[in-house]
Design brief:
There is one protein chain. By secondary structure, the chain is an alpha/beta fold. It folds into four domains: 1-39, no CATH class; 45-129, Immunoglobulins (Immunoglobulin-like); 147-548, TIM Barrel (Alpha-Beta Barrel), CATH 3.20.20.80; 556-634, Golgi alpha-mannosidase II (Immunoglobulin-like), CATH 2.60.40. Helix 13 runs antiparallel to helix 16 and helix 16 (470-482) runs parallel beside helix 17.
């Protein structure tokens, strides 16, 4: 897998052996300066800032951060809330307070007092809110959906006033550089929700929108510096909540991209760590091997597995220690907090195979307990069906653990569609690859929960990967939007945006028209050229057909052995039967349909759903060179 995060930050090494001897040395040896240490206010933060009554799990662990806060005595008094334990850790600037909130506790606020003889007490007013079930939130993202992935910095700038935020480490905006912030934000996305709805998209996945206050190249969002705060360059927490509500009001679902594995080095809790083993420690900087095989290989060594799981993703992203129960609670509660706060429908889990497996399995169980309809899929950019299936819920391949991970990013199907489009037809290649990969679906508990895609923010764009061949473009999109799974497209696919991911900034270009000063506005038909409009209209037609056709969403799949470079499959339910014919040849092919009678029986005509052409027979179909027909069979 390519490393999406490589940047030019100086390498930072945590010297664990020394740190373990004297905790205070940490502050000197690490990148935490004495000046920053001194700047921590007496009561800097309490996280989660507020919580809810009626959660399935009555336990709540508050992280309290403030200068020498551990010297303080903690007290509270609220009916239903039990103070179970005060945890002091290595760093006196932290307290972890274990609470239990009884099921019948009334929503309301109470004071948490931090006292010390002879000193002024600090008081934090803690609020327990009512869980919001008032509108149809948390629908889950399923195979009924079409996911559209955007990078918020690169989609649309709806608020120029937040382009550069005073006090943040990255001090300028530069749209001419792929490494700088470009000014896109939540308001920009909100302004274009109708564009996405019209396009036929039903779910939006944004790369992480929480604060990434890094010194440079922070726009990608995977170097988190504050888990509870929307990056001010995108908006604020209230605007994010409003964005989710607006999406729901338009029938769109929202996916949040979350990172368990690492944070940015500028994260406030990395700069003043609660304890040495908050992150994985190495004697010298040690990077992960990016080799997922090490976690499942029967011949693998312990040292390789450890390096895969505990090695840092890159030097600017410390590897969180998910075996540490305080880290576990922190992450779990943060994710629950965002879902309950904003009503998110699905989570995409970044760098899934790099996380501690037992922790991730437990995490998924806890999240599903609070939000049964929540959808979850893990980024598993691994090689092959077996390797990715290993990570899925209920897999018999993983004998040690049920991961409880409902869905994964289906690289095997992606590669197989590319092979169907670009490869030469043979026993195992060309469209035979796609047929074979799908024939392996018996390996999954539910393959319909896999997210299928052709590209994303870390990969070369689809249009470039098929040699900018418009015929293949249409053919591949037809396969993606008609086969099983949850299709995901990357912003700009509908406009034939292209480029190879080297460096990755090239596949993260701005959506033209998202900025007031843009000369072209590709959100509008009159801003697109003829070819772009053709692609847009094709995409829109197909996406909207899928949106209104349950057979393509949840219907059964039946596929036939490819012959003469032609791959045929059906999606069907009691309402409709859709026949898909993919011709991978350079010439037109006529396909006789006798051998498909198991599925064509009872039908006498067909409608081409992309051209609306009516075909008055089903005995044979002519498929143009390098194209895919999508036909709705008619009685
Ligand atoms: Ca902006």
């Amino acid at each position: 897998m390519t490393n999406p995060y490589l940047t030019n930050f100086p390498q930072i090494v945590l010297k664990s052996t020394l740190l373990k001897k004297i905790f205070c040395s940490l502050l000197l040896l690490c990148y935490v300066s004495a000046a920053i240490y001194a700047q921590i206010p007496a009561l800097e933060r309490v996280e989660p800032m507020f919580w809810w009554v009626g959660m399935k799990n009555p336990k709540l662990q508050l992280l309290v951060h403030g200068k020498n806060i551990a010297e303080r005595y903690v007290s509270l008094n609220y009916p239903g809330v039990k103070l179970v334990r005060i945890n002091k850790v290595e760093n006196p600037n932290y307290l972890f307070i274990d609470l239990e909130v009884a099921a019948n506790t009334k929503p309301g606020s109470f004071s948490i007092k931090f006292t010390r003889p002879g000193a002024k007490p600090f008081i934090y007013t803690y609020e327990l809110k009512t869980r919001d079930r008032s509108f149809t939130r948390i629908n889950g993202v399923t195979s009924k959906d079409l996911i559209y992935l955007i990078m918020p910095d690169r989609f649309a700038n709806g608020d120029k006033s937040n382009d550069v935020i005073k006090g943040m480490r990255e001090t300028s905006l530069n749209r001419d550089s792929m490494y700088y912030r470009h000014g896109g934000d939540l308001q920009g996305l909100i302004d274009h929700l109708d564009y996405l709805k019209d396009l036929g998209v039903t779910a939006i996945w944004m790369t992480p929108e929480i604060e990434n206050d890094m010194a440079s190249a922070s726009y990608h969002g995977y170097a988190v510096t504050d888990h509870y705060k929307i990056d001010p360059r995108y908006g604020n927490n209230e605007l994010y909540k409003k964005y989710v509500e607006l999406c729901h009001s338009k029938g769109l679902k929202v996916i949040k991209d979350i990172v368990h594995n690492h944070t940015g080095t500028e994260h406030w809790f990395i700069k003043d760590m609660p304890m040495i083993n908050w992150v994985h420690q190495w004697d010298k900087f040690t990077q992960t091997t990016y080799k997922d095989q090490t976690v499942m290989d029967p011949y693998g060594s312990a040292v390789d597995k450890k390096r895969m799981l505990n090695g840092w993703f890159v030097s600017s992203m410390p590897d969180l220690n998910q075996s540490n129960p305080f880290v576990q609670n922190y992450l779990n509660q943060n994710h629950i907090w965002w879902i309950e706060y904003a009503g998110i429908d699905g989570l995409r889990l970044d760098t899934y195979p790099y996380n501690e497996p037992a922790y991730m399995a437990d995490w998924a169980k806890k999240l599903k307990a609070e939000f049964p309809r929540l959808s979850i899929f893990g980024e598993t950019l691994v090689n092959g069906v077996v390797n990715q299936a290993y990570f899925t819920q209920g897999s018999t391949l993983n004998k040690n653990l049920d991961t409880n991970l409902p869905g994964i990013t289906d690289v095997a199907v992606k590669d197989a569609i590319y092979e169907a489009l670009n490869g030469k037809f043979d026993w195992t290649s060309g469209v035979n690859r796609l047929y074979s990969v799908l024939a392996n679906d018996f390996i999954y508990q539910d393959p319909y929960r896999n997210v299928i895609f052709m590209d994303n923010h870390d990969m070369s764009r689809y249009y470039s990967m098929i040699g900018e061949d418009y015929g293949k473009y249409k053919s591949g999109l037809a396969l993606l939007l008609t086969t099983r799974g949850i299709p995901q497209v990357y912003y700009g696919t509908e406009l034939l945006m292209k480029n190879f991911s080297n460096p990755d900034g090239l596949v993260r270009e701005d959506f033209k028209g998202g900025w007031e000063e843009d000369k072209q506005n590709k959100f509008r038909a009159d801003g697109r050229n003829e070819k772009e409009n053709e692609a847009f209209n094709y995409f829109r037609k197909l996406a909207n057909y899928r949106k209104n056709t349950t057979a393509l969403q949840t219907g059964k799949l039946m596929q036939y052995v490819p012959e003469n470079g032609v791959y045929v499959f059906f999606r069907y339910n009691t309402a409709k039967t859709v026949m898909v014919l993919c011709n991978s040849n350079d010439k037109e092919i006529t396909v006789e349909t006798d051998r498909f009678s198991e599925r064509t029986k009872g039908f006498s005509a067909a409608k081409n759903v992309l051209t609306d052409e009516w075909i008055n027979r089903i005995s044979n179909f002519k498929i143009p060179a390098k194209s895919t027909l999508v036909l709705e069979l008619q009685k």
